[in-house]
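testing teh design pipeline on a random one, pls ignore if ur not involved
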């Protein structure tokens, strides 16, 4: 059996934050090791690690025969690449570089053996698809172009005879059943990401007959009508507990592979540590490990070799003769200027003969002799009398008057300070207190309108609780209040 798991961890250190104080010396290695032990899979694909966008871990028994970063092939510059790129004429070179610049795709190719003893090639595409921010229309265009490139590459691999699994965070809820409130979402049917998935996936699941796309959503193949099967929840407190989320993480397999080898497809909502939960599948095949790891494997990187790097690795040799000539010219100019400065300093420095001093060590008493630059005290200088140095006695009335005067000045300074403080408080009033919602009498949250229209950019207040059915009293109430303009 081959078990594959995908998980958007929202930071590689997030799942086991409570273990920080147990073993702080090797915390990073300990976290990854315990996550892999908990998932108990042959191949684990991570997304949003905050170190890289995607990362794939394989057991020794599932060592890939090839690995490649990106979908376009522009980053494939060494031996051990996956290949099979398809027709990408609709993309420019600059566009392909931009789509792969964020490191959102990682391909690994494995040898598998079926129960009949046949060896085949399986390509896993670990993806973290872009999110379409409503306030940034250009990100929606970027997301759709990334989808197109992903489909072209996957279909090219299928045409070359490889089985393909696309797994990861696709950032799209495909069907209304995959979102807790899809009925009330505006334009859910017209979502371009959902339309793209309609063209990628087979509409009849595991049933035989006509189908639209070459891939199958493996979870819906085994659980076609399971409601509340979500993989991502809002960051609002209580959303996961109330199960107000959506299904954005998938394991998509090509139709032949899913029908012939998939034994199960599952979600792991009980695994905490991220706003996503792991998803996975079990295949009735065995993996055939490669004799050696592909060059893209991290074990070949100097950073993971376990030895200290030399400082020469951080220095870049100038290969361009123009830059080398300019650097040499600048270096020669700098050396000449340094010699001129040294000669100027030597010429202005006084010699011992000119200064009139000997090279021998000076006597300590020479530092206590009067300097010729300061006038010496006259021997006929008259000292003041002792009586002049005595402070005259002040009367008790004068002392009391001074005390009263000091208290009055302190009171005036205090009043002036209070006046200044009240003035600046009136000018800089600070943020207004949050209003209370009528349903729960709790502080609201402030939101901003991002939908194009006359209210674009305006602020408003709503209930801070997560969304839910209207019949649930613990969910968000219908309180709404426009914010006053500042």
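output:
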């Amino acid at each position: 059996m081959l078990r594959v798991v995908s998980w958007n961890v929202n930071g590689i250190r997030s799942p086991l934050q409570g273990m920080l104080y147990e073993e702080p010396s090797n915390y990073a290695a300990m976290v990854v090791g315990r996550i892999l032990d908990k998932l108990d899979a042959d191949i684990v694909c991570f997304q949003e690690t905050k170190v890289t966008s995607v990362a794939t871990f394989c057991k020794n028994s599932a060592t890939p025969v090839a690995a490649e970063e990106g979908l376009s092939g522009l980053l494939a510059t060494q031996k051990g690449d996956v290949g099979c790129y398809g027709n990408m004429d609709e993309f420019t070179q600059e566009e392909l570089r931009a789509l792969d610049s964020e490191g959102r795709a990682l391909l690994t190719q494995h040898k598998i053996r079926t129960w009949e003893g046949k060896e085949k090639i399986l390509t896993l595409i670990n993806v973290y698809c872009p999110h379409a921010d409503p306030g940034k229309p250009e990100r929606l265009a970027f997301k759709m172009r990334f989808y197109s490139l992903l489909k072209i590459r996957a279909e090219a691999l299928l045409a070359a005879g490889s089985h393909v699994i696309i797994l990861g965070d696709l950032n799209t809820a495909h069907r209304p059943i995959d979102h807790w409130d899809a009925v009330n979402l505006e334009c859910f049917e017209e979502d371009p990401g959902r339309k793209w998935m309609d063209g990628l996936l087979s509409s009849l699941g595991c049933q035989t007959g006509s189908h639209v796309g070459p891939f199958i959503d493996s979870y819906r193949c085994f659980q076609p009508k399971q409601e509340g099967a979500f993989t991502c929840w809002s960051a609002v407190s209580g959303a996961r507990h109330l199960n107000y989320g959506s299904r954005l993480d998938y394991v998509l397999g090509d139709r032949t592979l899913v029908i012939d080898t998939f034994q199960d497809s599952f979600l792991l909502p009980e695994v905490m540590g991220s706003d996503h939960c792991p998803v996975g599948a079990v295949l009735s095949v065995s993996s055939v490990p490669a004799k050696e790891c592909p060059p893209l494997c991290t074990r070949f990187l100097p950073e993971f070799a376990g030895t200290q790097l030399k400082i020469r690795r951080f220095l870049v040799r100038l290969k361009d003769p123009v830059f080398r000539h300019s650097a040499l010219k600048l270096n020669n100019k700098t050396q000449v200027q340094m010699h001129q400065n040294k000669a100027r300093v030597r010429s202005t420095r006084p010699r011992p003969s000119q200064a009139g001093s000997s090279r021998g060590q000076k006597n300590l008493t020479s530092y206590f002799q009067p300097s010729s630059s300061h006038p010496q005290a006259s021997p006929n200088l008259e000292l003041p009398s002792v009586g002049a140095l005595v402070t005259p006695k002040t009367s008790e009335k004068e002392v009391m008057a001074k005390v009263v005067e000091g208290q009055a000045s302190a009171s005036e300074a205090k009043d002036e300070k209070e006046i200044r403080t009240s003035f600046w408080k009136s000018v800089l009033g600070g943020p207004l207190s949050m209003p209370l919602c009528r349903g729960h009498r709790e502080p609201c949250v402030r939101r901003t309108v991002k939908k194009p229209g006359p209210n674009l950019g305006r602020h408003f207040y709503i209930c801070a609780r997560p969304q839910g059915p209207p019949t649930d009293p613990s969910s968000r109430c219908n309180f709404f209040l426009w914010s006053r303009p500042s």
